[in-house]
Automatic annotation (TrEMBL):
InterPro entries assigned to the protein according to its UniProt record, in alphabetical order: Leucine_aapep/pepB, Macro_dom-like, Peptidase_M17_C, Peptidase_M17_leu_NH2_pept, Peptidase_M17_N
Keywords recorded for this protein, A-Z: Aminopeptidase, Cytoplasm, Hydrolase, Manganese, Metal-binding, Protease
Family statement: Belongs to the peptidase M17 family.
Binding site for Mn(2+) 1: 261, 338, 340
Listed cofactors: Mn(2+)
Name used for this protein in its record: Probable cytosol aminopeptidase
Gene, per the UniProt record: pepA
Role according to the record: Presumably involved in the processing and regular turnover of intracellular proteins. Catalyzes the removal of unsubstituted N-terminal amino acids from various peptides.
Superkingdom, taxonomy of origin: Bacteria
Cofactor note: Binds 2 manganese ions per subunit.
Active site: 268, 342
Binding residues for Mn(2+) 2: 256, 261, 279, 340
């Protein structure tokens, strides 16, 4: 779908105009009301539309204007309008018209917001327009998207275009993250995923792929153990963006990339196992972020690194009771082969901090079902040794509508991964504090560097937002791209 910015609305196609709380018409809505002999106010009076954020009201084929339809959209209280409100408004209009048969809509925001606000409305439109129809061959015409162009009417089109160059790149990153999360596991495996990542070089990223020979030489027994039952070779993909000052330490983003997690020998229940194609949601967020940073030419040095593995039951698969040696030299007793993501991250974290000497490390993983029980599907849990990172992520999460909540770490939880048979074990004590014990496990592989683990088990798939958020139309949510991009924008770009 095309996004453009215009100084005036077209008289053809649909036109969307804002209304504020209490059915207070904007200037554009008042103009249309006059042109239609009061049809706008009559439609409002005959409905339950009141101008609340996210509300829409459609008037089809109105007399007095050439536009095919008028869409009223709510912006809430005028003095409390935010970028989030504008995003949701752009998304709500797009959702309403996406399969309506309409091909074009002009969203009248001139006189209502600045260039950034207009770009954020466009971002909402792009997020809402996402479809994953790659394998749907029987869609009827009325099920297919018809909307081709969203034109945002704004006072300064040049400034809006400049803003969109940045926010449009974020939309590209989110869409990429959604795409790879949605792909079925017979299409996306560690090898095909690595090739897809190699294609990101066209955007200016430096790409490097490590194979199993290299990982064996490095001593990555934790990661390699997870993938030894798969027919596909495990990979590590490294993405570098050098947009900052030469010599500045990079920000490091690490993602868990289990392209399918059967649980291994500790086999998962059959019900819902299909959704384990999304167990690479952490890697999707990192890949999408790197696409966004490169697309908007972010003024920062950043490295994204993802461990790409498939966890399958097989005669050669890892067994409960195995003891493996990680790259760090620490030995790990495997008590449950379904606690595999932390094993992948253990070696990737150790390798990346040792090689790249980053300023800070943030890892993302669909790591524990316990996180979903604790926070549901609207917030991700963060575990960190840095109050500064926690504060910055909390603000970035609220500003991007990808909120997080800080969870505890500490010596009283370290005992959960103690064992008499190795240095540590890969699961805690029963079901107690499962997300925390997993984070404590990861902490063993980051030394004292500023680090944060984000458990996105509840937000990466299935829809992290409330059902009425039109920005979230997809099972694979792309969660993580927006909060991390905001984290970088606000705190680490010169």
């Amino acid at each position: 779908m095309k996004i453009e910015f215009a100084a005036a609305a077209s008289t053809s196609g649909a036109i969307a105009v804002p209304v504020y709380e209490g059915a207070s018409l904007s200037a554009a809505a008042e103009t249309l009301d006059g042109a239609t002999s009061g049809a706008v106010k009559r439609a409002v009076a005959a409905s339950r539309f009141s101008g609340k954020p996210g509300q829409t009201l459609e008037i089809v084929a109105p007399s007095g204007v050439e536009n095919s339809r008028i869409v009223l959209f709510g912006l809430g209280e005028k003095d409390k309008r935010s970028a989030s409100t504008l995003e949701k408004a752009g998304a709500a209009v797009t959702k309403l018209l996406l399969t309506s048969g309409e091909t074009d809509v002009a969203v009248a925001l001139n006189g209502e917001t600045d260039a950034e606000g207009a770009a954020r409305a466009a971002l909402g439109a792009r997020l809402a327009a996402y479809r994953y129809d790659q394998f749907r061959t029987r869609l009827k015409d009325d099920q297919k998207p018809s909307l081709e162009t969203v034109s945002i009417v704004v006072d300064d089109t040049s400034a809006a275009d400049a803003e969109w160059a940045s926010w449009g790149a974020v939309a590209d990153g989110v869409d990429l993250a959604r795409d790879v999360t949605n792909l079925p596991p017979n299409v996306l495996n560690p090898e095909t995923y690595a090739k897809k990542i190699e294609g990101l070089a066209e955007f200016g990223l430096e790409i490097e792929i490590l194979d199993e020979v290299h990982m064996t030489e490095l001593g990555m027994g934790a990661l390699l153990g997870v993938g030894q039952g798969s027919e596909f070779e495990s990979k590590i993909a490294i993405m570098k963006w050098n947009g900052g000052k030469e010599g500045d330490a990079p920000l490091l983003f690490v993602g868990k990339g289990l392209t399918f997690d059967s649980g291994g020998i500790s086999l998962k229940p059959g019900a819902g196992m299909d959704e384990m194609r999304g167990d690479m949601g952490g890697s999707a967020a990192v890949v999408g972020l790197m696409r966004a940073l490169a697309g908007r030419k972010a003024n920062v040095n950043a490295i994204g690194i993802v461990g790409l593995v498939e966890n399958m039951p097989d005669g050669n698969a890892q067994r409960p009771g195995d003891i493996v040696t990680s790259m760090s030299g620490q030995t790990i007793e495997i008590l449950n082969t379904d606690a595999e993501g932390r094993l992948v991250l253990a070696d990737v974290l150790w390798y990346s901090q040792d090689r790249f000497k980053p300023k800070l490390i943030i890892d993302l993983a669909t790591l524990t079902g316990a996180m979903l029980i604790a926070l549901g599907n609207t917030r991700a849990g963060i575990f960190t040794n840095s109050d500064e990172i926690a504060d910055h992520l909390f603000k970035a999460g609220n500003d991007s509508d990808e909120p997080v909540w800080r969870m505890p770490l500490g010596p009283d939880y370290e005992k959960h991964i103690e064992t008499k048979n190795a240095d540590i074990r890969n699961v805690g004590e029963g079901r107690l504090a499962g997300s925390i014990s997993a984070a404590e496990f990861l902490k063993c592989f980051v030394n004292d560097r500023p680090w944060c683990h984000i458990d996105i088990a509840g937000t990466a798939m299935g829809g992290m937002s409330p059902k009425d958020d039109p920005r979230q139309p997809s099972w694979g949510t792309g969660w993580g791209v927006r909060i991390l991009d905001r984290f970088v924008r606000d705190n680490h770009e010169g």
